[in-house]
Amino acid sequence: MISILDQFEQGVESTFKSAPTSKQLLDESFDRDEDLGGVPILSKKKVNFSPSDKITQLLVSNEYVVLVMVNNVLLRINLKQDNIEEIDTLKTSSLKVKQLFLDPFGEHLLISCGNITSSQLFYATKQLSKLKPVGKYQGSEITSVAWNCDCRVKSTSSTTGPILLGNSSGAIIETQLGTEFDRFFQGSVVQYWKEVFDISKGQPIPIIGLQYYRVGKSDLFYILAITPTKLYQFVDFIFNKDERPMLQQIFNNYLTIPERFYEVPTVVKHGKLHFYFLNNDFTVPKYFGFLTELGVFVAEVDINKDEKTIFSSHELIEYSRLYGRDDDDFTVPLSMTFTRYHVLLLFPERVIAVSLVAPADRNASQVMDEDYCSDSHGRLLNITKDLMTGTIWLYAERAVFRYKMIKEDRHVWKVYLDKGMFEEAKEICISNPHRMNQVLVRQAEHFFNSKQYENSALIYANLNVSFEEIVLKFLHLNEKKPIKLFLMKKLDSLKSHDYTKITMVTLWLIELFSNELAVLRNYKQGKSQEYTMLQESFQHFLSRSIIQDCIRKNWESIYDILASHGDVNFMIWLALENQDFKRVIQHYLNEENIAEALTLLDNHPFSELFYTFSSDLVEKAPAQTVSILIKQGQKLDPLKVINTLITPNPSERLALEIIRYLEYSIHCLNCHVESVHNYLISLYIKHNRDKLMNYLKLQGREITAVSYNPEFALRLCREHQLGEACVQLSIVLGLWEAAVDLALTVSVDLAKTTASLPNNNMELSKKLWLKIAQYVVKQNNDIEQAMRFLEECKFIKIEDILPFFPDFVTIDHFKDAVCSSLEEYNKDIQSLKEEMEDATKSAEVIRSEILSFRNGYMLIQPSNECSSCQEQLVTKAFYTFPCSHCFHAECLIKEMQPYVDPSTITTIKDLQNQLSILYQNNKDITQSLEAISRRDKVKESLDKLLAAECFFCGEIMISLIDKPFIEDADFENIKQEWE
């Protein structure tokens, strides 16, 4: 059996085509309504179902259909499984089915039956194959049921949860039904049965409609009940949801107060209470309504827990004005149901779709579509809706139809637009750019005409309309805020590649902001709250990323705008925000605001800024500038900084600060640039000579180790007659004699110190000391001082200085020195004699050892083994050493091969080959004598290479003491093997 739902979808598919894309809408500028080609809103399809008898009632919930025929046969159809079940237990009964009640989830069914004398209620579920009587209920006829729409109840079909029943006498009963209560032979599906409220007040009044809902997940509940002339609403909290009866807690609050109801036109007898829910959420109804004799009562749900009301306003869609004209001869509909924007009314011959939004023109028709039905299937009975799926069902006596709403909002947005309900119109047009543009244009025009210029500007900025046209509209206004809002909003809609537009709008906005600020300053309101707020707004605008990019590319234009309005403070702020510190520092320097310039430089360190402004700042604030430079440390290149600090004739204060930075660069930054050291020396010479000698001593005496230019430093020191410094520099240059000569002009002690420095060169030291001695003897003519001089210098003897004494000096003045010198010579001669005797004895010992080695021998036993291969020694040619190690010739070569030069191994092999050839060619006596001679020479050469020393005890093995046992290349592999 083909699914009824599938048949319906296939039937509609052929009449509805896919909508065009948004791009097509924008490019071709057509309304999607026109593309529908006259497709009606109401699309009806007959269901492939033929009842065996006339249908009297039909309900659909969650694709579960229940219908009753005139012969009391009950059919239950599961559309999901295409399963039809027939229940005819009422065929033999005198009771007739009056009404069916099916819960929204399709799980529970109540059947109200009766005759002239009595009425009865039956209960069934999807799983029950037969009807269960609800206890022994024989009271008034049940006319309405308020189902429990809690989703937790949906998860099980065993119980209905608390529900409300309204009867023809005006009583409201709370009960809970379920198959789980039918146990212990009780034969009842009722857990409890309690009358909780009575509307009749002693006069039987039928309850036509009854519903209750919970507000979201809160504890707030509301109940609606309608009688022929009144609408009752009950709103309150339920704090104990486990209490039974549960809803009694709400009604208790209305027992002691006057009756509260809303007068409505007479409700038709077959009227029901209808709700429309958004997105199938049974906790959030959009609106509700019911049929009256004059029109459709429609009210939007608006819960007010304080005033205990469910709606605040309502509308009566009069039958006489459905077509926009007064019609006194109207027909009351048979039934109704809600869609999102329409109420569908069933008349005996047709179904009409009436817009829930009344048109702005009272004479316009409110009927958006109508569908006529033939009488071939019998008279039309009812129209109902599956709340879970949204499918609309229409049934006649002999047929069942299903409706589908096709683009039901096609006209509603226009109605909203004509009535000025722009937000509602935009909600409908959100997926249709062409419609949305029309709505926004109308809304913007409405705001502009009603002088809501700012709202109008915000909307115009999002429209695809002429920029010039909108700008001209706002330029004529005295107020500039709307044009500013329009430009700012327009800027948000521009893409990054619209660089020209972004630049134009940005510059215009900067001009507007600057002009507003200038006007406030001119009126002496520079400190007002309005000025502060405007500044903050301007700053926020300039801080946006898209503006920052524009500012970076249009610096001069923006500064010209700000300058034209005299806004210096904002120029500085803008420059700081965009890190244009160079411009700000230059401004501070022009204003002689050195403190601010230094603070900015200290807080925003950029190397190029220091190189640019150090020369200007150090002249005006030497100490502070140098302190900031030192604070930067290695971030700055000392050479570049010093280039900015070089001044032809610096003041004493400035020079001392420059010296401080140079000393920091040398001692802390390890700067070895020659020009830096030369500049420091020049400043020392001119302004701080006390530090010069310390600096030169720290630099040392090696010319390769000093960082300055010694020739340059020596020239400066000579120009300023700095003798001691000249001595030090001469030493660095290796001019020892000149250094001593300069030192003698300063003091003899300095000269002595200088002469004592070259300790490693005795000849030079002696020469330098002789210079000093000659100076002491000739210049001072002091014999005693000369004698003391001999005691201080160990390189000079009395005979070296005798030529310097004058001729009249007698031997008595240096007799002691001569004697001391002779004694020293005598000691040297005696020491040489002892050394000669020791050498003679050593030579004799060596001769005796050589003789003993010539006569030495070793005994080789047959059992002796090679120290390398551990085989018998005498089986092959071998070498033996005094240390008792013995090697086969081949083993010795093999052991030596890894540790000697490759050339040595090659020579050994060549000698072995020659020796082998000589042994083979030894045939006659003459040849043998020559071969023996050559063989001995070759053998002697081979022995010198192989037997020079023991491989295990000689220098080869000693030289390998620092070689690791495992090579680096093999270490990782061996390590892994051990792991």
TrEMBL record:
Keyword Zinc-finger: yes
GO biological process, one term: lysosome organization
Topology in the lipid bilayer: Peripheral membrane protein
The keyword Transcription is annotated on this UniProt entry: no
Domain Pep3/Vps18 beta-propeller, first and last residues per copy: 40-404
Gene Ontology molecular-function annotations: protein-macromolecule adaptor activity; zinc ion binding
Residue ranges the record marks as coiled coil: 815-849
Keywords noted in UniProt: Coiled coil, Membrane, Metal-binding, Zinc, Zinc-finger
Highest rank taxon of the organism: Eukaryota
InterPro entries documented for this protein: Clathrin_H-chain/VPS_repeat (IPR000547), Pep3/Vps18_beta-prop (IPR007810), Pep3/Vps18_RING_C (IPR058919)
CHCR repeat start and end residues: 629-785
PANTHER family referenced in this protein's UniProt entry, alphabetically: VACUOLAR PROTEIN SORTING-ASSOCIATED PROTEIN, VACUOLAR PROTEIN SORTING-ASSOCIATED PROTEIN 18 HOMOLOG
Family: Belongs to the VPS18 family.
Protein name in the entry: Vacuolar protein sorting-associated protein 18 homolog
Protein's organism: Acyrthosiphon pisum (Pea aphid)
